[in-house]
Amino acid sequence: MNIILEHRTWRYATKKFDPSKKVSDQDLETLLEATRLSASSYGLQPYHIFVISDQETKEKLKPASWNQSQITDASHVIVFANTTDFGEELVDNFIENTSTTRNIPIENLKGYADFMKSKLVSLPSESKDTWTAKQAYIAFGNLMQAAAELKIDTCPMEGFESDQYNEILGLTEKNLNAAVVLTIGYRSEEDQTQHLPKVRKSKEALFTHI
């Protein structure tokens, strides 16, 4: 089987993690770097990612996660928090970083900066929140697939109370909102879900070639 398809066939939404197995520091850094390199609209990355290994914090998050065992049994809980609102500073910070990284005079980037600001800054607050959450999901998907390449199990989770996450992690005062969660670690042998075939739409039902 093609290695790309092999990785995607191997991964599944792990329901029961082995709490005795932890993701190594080296593998974690690889996953986080793969996430950092993810695409985002304009390259702005309007989100922040919390990497939680502290067991006490995970215990606090579990009730806010519908008491799902993945939160406390997984090696790490990765919380993708989108920026809920922003002004010109989002673009300005990116332009400064671009200028430094590519050794381009910042005045040479003014036209691009003004273009981004014209498209983004005047958006309604609700639209900004939706857009930044979508960007977080792109990084989220990249992390999940990178983990599969390392044979690290994951469970994508939307079953949690974001307002409670925001309170526990102090996100609201940071202009952030918990958008989606990914637990990572290693599957338990007791997790029967791993033996089930994937249920997906057929190619005929899913794709239209034009």
Automatic annotation (TrEMBL):
SUPFAM superfamilies reported in the protein's UniProt record: FMN-dependent nitroreductase-like
Keyword NADP appears in the UniProt entry: yes
This protein's UniProt keywords: Flavoprotein, FMN, NADP, Oxidoreductase
Pfam families given in the database record: Nitroreductase
Reported cofactor(s): FMN
Residue ranges annotated for the Nitroreductase domain, each copy included: 10-186
InterPro entries given in the database record: NfsB-like, Nitroreductase, Nitroreductase-like
GO MF entries: oxidoreductase activity
Coiled coil: none
Family per record: Belongs to the nitroreductase family.
Protein name in UniProt: NAD(P)H-dependent oxidoreductase
Organism: Flagellimonas aequoris
